[in-house]
TrEMBL record:
InterPro entries: AAA+_ATPase, ABC_transporter-like_ATP-bd, ABC_transporter-like_CS, ABC_transpr_LolD-like, P-loop_NTPase. This is ABC transporter related. Residues 17-227 form the ABC transporter domain. The lineage of its organism: Bacteria, Bacillati, Actinomycetota, Actinomycetes, Micrococcales. GO terms for molecular function: ATP binding; ATP hydrolysis activity; transmembrane transporter activity. It comes from the Bacteria. Keywords: ATP-binding, Nucleotide-binding. One of its GO terms (cellular component) is plasma membrane. PANTHER family: IMPORT ATP-BINDING PROTEIN. The keyword Nucleotide-binding applies.
Length: 228
C-alpha cells in the first residue's frame, strides 16, 4: 500500500502539461532546443541526460519559472507564464539543492509555504507532520535544516512539495543524496502521486530511479528524445 500523503479532492487537472517547441536561451547558452512533450494526468516521467544537458532548465520551464525564448508551456488550456501563477495552478517544484530555509526547522520549512497559500495553521501543521512521516523524518521535524544531513534535507524538500498536494510535481534530482532504501521510499511516494492523478516529472542521473517511472525521456545538449 502506498503511504501517499492525503489529497484534496476538490481540485483536478483538466488536461496535460504541454511543452510546445520550447527553446530556452540562458545568456549565450541554448539550454533547451525545440522541446515538445505532453504529459497526461496520472503519468510519472523520468528525464535523464548528462550534466549540463538541460534537465533543470526543463524542470524550471515546466514549472513556469523560466520564460521560454520561444514556444510555450501549457497546463490544460492555460499557458504557464510565471512561477506564481503556476504555483497557484498546483505546480510544485522540488529544486536541485533543495532550496530550504536553513535557519528554520524541517517542519517550519513545510508549514510556511502552506500558510502562504492560505492553508489554516492547524491544517498546515497536520499536513507537514503527515508529509514528514511519509518521507521517514518524523523524528527530525524540529531540527534546524542546518542540523540535517544532505539526504535528510532532500527528504524535507520532497515533503514540502507533497504537503502542497500538487497537481503537477516536478522533482529535480530528488534522490541524488539518498541510500538505496530511502531512494525507493521517495520514488514510491512519487509513484503514489501519479497513481492518485498528478503529473509527476523527475529529472535524474540515477538509472535505477528512472527505471521506476512509466516513461523516460533523454536530454542531450538541450534536445529531448523519448527513451521508452
Ligand atoms: N544561469 C545560467 N546562465 C547561463 N547558462 C546557464 C545558466 N544555468 C545553466 N546554464 C547552462 O545551461 C545548460 C543546461 O543547464 P542545466 O542546469 O539545465 O543542466 P542539467 O542537465 O540540469 O545539469 P546537471 O545534471 O549538472 O544538474 C548548461 O550548459 C549550463 O551550463
Amino acid at each position: 500500500m502506498s503511504d501517499r500523503v492525503e489529497t484534496t479532492a476538490d481540485r483536478a487537472l483538466d488536461g496535460p502539461l504541454v511543452a510546445e517547441s520550447v527553446t530556452v536561451d540562458l545568456g549565450a547558452v541554448r539550454a533547451l532546443e525545440e522541446v515538445s512533450l505532453a504529459l497526461a494526468p496520472g503519468s510519472f516521467t523520468a528525464v535523464t541526460g548528462p550534466s549540463g544537458a538541460g534537465k533543470s532548465t526543463l524542470v524550471w520551464a515546466l514549472g513556469g519559472a523560466l520564460v521560454p525564448t520561444s514556444g510555450q508551456i501549457r497546463l490544460g488550456d492555460r499557458p504557464l507564464t510565471d512561477r506564481a501563477m503556476a504555483a497557484a495552478a498546483g505546480v510544485a517544484v522540488v529544486a536541485q539543492g533543495n532550496a530550504l530555509v536553513t535557519p528554520l526547522t524541517g517542519l517550519e520549512n513545510i508549514v510556511v509555504p502552506l500558510l502562504a497559500q492560505g492553508v489554516p495553521p492547524r491544517e498546515a501543521q497536520h499536513r507537514a507532520v503527515e508529509a514528514l512521516e511519509a518521507v521517514g523524518l518524523s523524528d527530525s521535524a524540529n531540527h534546524l535544516v542546518e542540523e540535517l544531513s544532505g539526504g535528510q534535507q532532500q527528504r524535507v524538500a520532497v515533503a514540502r512539495a507533497l504537503a502542497l498536494r500538487p497537481l503537477v510535481l516536478l522533482a529535480d534530482e530528488p534522490t541524488s543524496d539518498l541510500d538505496a532504501t530511502t531512494r525507493e521510499r521517495i520514488v514510491d511516494l512519487l509513484v503514489g502521486e501519479a497513481d492518485a492523478g498528478a503529473i509527476v516529472v523527475m529529472a535524474t542521473h540515477d538509472p535505477v530511479a528512472a527505471a521506476l517511472a512509466d516513461a523516460e525521456y533523454h536530454l542531450d545538449e538541450g534536445r529531448l528524445s523519448p527513451v521508452r
